[in-house]
Amino acid sequence: MDYTLDKINSIINGRLIGAGNTSITGVASVENAGQGDITFIKDDSLVDKLLASETTAAVIHREIDGFQKPAIIVDNPFHSFIKFLETIAAERNAQPCGIHPSACVSKTATLGANISIGANTVIDDGTQIGDNATIRPNVFIGRDCVIGDNAFIHPNVVIYEQTTIGDRATIFPGTVIGADGFGYLQKDGKHVKIPQVGVVEIGNDVEIGANVTIDRAALDKTVIGNGVKIDNHSHVAHNAIIGDNTILVAYAKIAGGAVIGKNVLIAEDVGINDHAVIGDNCIVGGGSNVYKSLPPGSVVWGSPARPLNEEKKIQSIIKRLPEMRQKIKDLEKKAQAGNQLSVIGNKHIP
Amino acid sequence: MDYTLDKINSIINGRLIGAGNTSITGVASVENAGQGDITFIKDDSLVDKLLASETTAAVIHREIDGFQKPAIIVDNPFHSFIKFLETIAAERNAQPCGIHPSACVSKTATLGANISIGANTVIDDGTQIGDNATIRPNVFIGRDCVIGDNAFIHPNVVIYEQTTIGDRATIFPGTVIGADGFGYLQKDGKHVKIPQVGVVEIGNDVEIGANVTIDRAALDKTVIGNGVKIDNHSHVAHNAIIGDNTILVAYAKIAGGAVIGKNVLIAEDVGINDHAVIGDNCIVGGGSNVYKSLPPGSVVWGSPARPLNEEKKIQSIIKRLPEMRQKIKDLEKKAQAGNQLSVIGNKHIP
Amino acid sequence: MDYTLDKINSIINGRLIGAGNTSITGVASVENAGQGDITFIKDDSLVDKLLASETTAAVIHREIDGFQKPAIIVDNPFHSFIKFLETIAAERNAQPCGIHPSACVSKTATLGANISIGANTVIDDGTQIGDNATIRPNVFIGRDCVIGDNAFIHPNVVIYEQTTIGDRATIFPGTVIGADGFGYLQKDGKHVKIPQVGVVEIGNDVEIGANVTIDRAALDKTVIGNGVKIDNHSHVAHNAIIGDNTILVAYAKIAGGAVIGKNVLIAEDVGINDHAVIGDNCIVGGGSNVYKSLPPGSVVWGSPARPLNEEKKIQSIIKRLPEMRQKIKDLEKKAQAGNQLSVIGNKHIP
Question: What total of structural domains would you count in chain C?
Fold first, then answer.
């Protein structure tokens, strides 16, 4: 990257102090910024770090005494800095339009305008790719899929037959969408596969991390709502439904037929039991296992998951279990002594 | 899909009621079936849903008053419906025979009859592919592997050198078989790799989900028995042995050298310690960590895993820990009071 | 493989007893060794197994009465056997030099001497590949990466833009390095992506298993130190730092900004909270969740993780909770009886 401060300010629209032709060749946190970098501080708590920094320029929320370097002053430096980062990231992600000669695109696929299809990517029969979509190398998209406008599919993603993906979806490498759900019937001591003939339907503005799996439904649909964000190594099993704007942090384990509401936050390494219904706006703490349905707005933690305050209380008691056990021993001794006393006492009671 | 009811009945052999030329273009659950669909109900518990459904036809277990639509009557609608689903799934999975021109198949590989090898797939020297095997695009199969008859290897699977896979195996995308086990020797404060020169041997009728890893043995073999089913994101470490017909649900973590018996059910997100021996017919509940060996037929749960009833009892007590703690406090108060009483009492004892 | 004992001894430099021209066609553990194999025993504890073995030859630590087969005697049979295994493994891993005609290597990439680039591998603009590096088929390496000398990148690995990987790195299939970290800003009830414009920097002598993900930093770097070993299915989130020679066993979940010291052992299925600081030489037991920072040398276990002895004590008490509850009940009964006695007693007290 190579920007002038003037150029950066034209993106974030702040008040520029210092030389607008200052050359910026990198971005960094205030702790790590050096020669050529632009950084930001979100508020006064980082002023000392800014003053100690070797950064070339900064996005800040007010003029700062003793900071002599070029700066852009804005109301919300974090938000404004993100605007600039969006420009950098878009630049980094930009791919040449067109279809790489080594890609295998079916003649019956329908391709939107301004698409980019990378090397060795396979797009099978009847699949539609939306306008401005980017499909990077070594991707496989099976038959009769629909990929929305402005989708960005990273390398080595597999999207299986009949999957629908909305606009502006981003899917990171190694993720597999539409593989068979895990369903068997026990018959004569053997496991007979229940064919998985449903589909996966993914909404708009969804982002899915790396090495995630979202299985196709047995019948009907596995559904990922609009605006859902799914982190690496997560698994959404067959027929699960994830509501709009819900977040699944890494290693979310959503079992078959579970229904997760809208605006739910599932923290890292959480298991949701099959067919559990998690209401809107729930928060599930990291490492939890949710075995039962949760009403909307629940805040739970633990394994099995309990209301957060209850779990915290229980955890604080578990920590003191050795002490509790000692108290019981002490009480037993006293009771023993008391009994003896009673016995002695009894003797003396007329 | 486009079937007539007559055609469907020719597959499932029931008693057809209504127009055999009715066109069926989809399958769905009784809750979601609509125009053009065929659905099923497994028993009387779903009759009301069937009557309320907009399905075009149904597979049912008896004539139902008020259900005016075409139907196929069979003894076990679930099993019969699965037969039809198998037909649909086979249709969906069918691939053209032959080797895609972009595939790289070694001249020293041995290829069975009627195989299908997809685009960009690499098959290395000395590897044998069985009859009727389907290898989809972007697959890598290393040297000297054996892939059985009727195997179905999905896109982006990696099968490493000297792996043996039995007949009718299905392996879903992103799965890696035969990568090195994780073994190091500590020497002068550094980790020296123990070369992993064993192999992986997979039996017949095995199904392996997406993004699974099965590591090659250090020496000897990692073994997956006949009829084993392994769900997404699972990991079978070096030298582990999985007995016939065992099921590993998602995120099974089978550590090095563990020996899992036959017909074991490992539920989701279970860890089995290295070298633990899990007897035949065990059931391990979801989220458990099994640190010790288990005799055949054990049913365990928890972390560390305990006999199910014991763990349930413990869990029910943990829930009441705050109450228990209060009781101890009350007892302490009473004991304190009792002591005082005793002291008072003592005074009165002559 | 096909070696003579003479040849093997030329690698491990021991004292050969028996026919040097004995042909060895396999390696196996003492339990499984058979015709044509060479095996080893690490010490006297396995002498009985060796005598019962059908191996053709063995590497042993002393002459053993009754063992009539050819043998190589060395000080440390395990270490010497590993030397031989290294030779076998190197042989198995060896790839032909050159660039496969189906690989897509950018004209602006810089390629070292004696490299091997496999079929369908994509190497993007500005990337440098070190001398003697092996990049196997279906790999994607994005723009402006640096891959060190003697690196070995297995099939279907994805290495994203601007990643730096040191010398002698080994990366197993399905692993994704440099995908975006998981960071969003809440704005008007929606999740706005925080662009991830940092990088990943990986040191020398690092080994990374299959289906691992290492995310790029939001700003600055995600760092994997020299000599780090990472097992399958692990996840290192954005801006995490892993110190030299640290080991992450399978399913390590290192959250954003966590700092792990040097020579740390993170056992299987451990979660480390975001921004937690784990000191050098810590050991974290399998299945733990570490929510807080740990001083150097800590040995912890559990969820939440506690000092090992404390957790063991707590676990041993949890096991006896039913008994504890019974004791409290008994104490309550006695207290009840005691009260009655007191009441009775009181009556008698003048």
Answer: 3
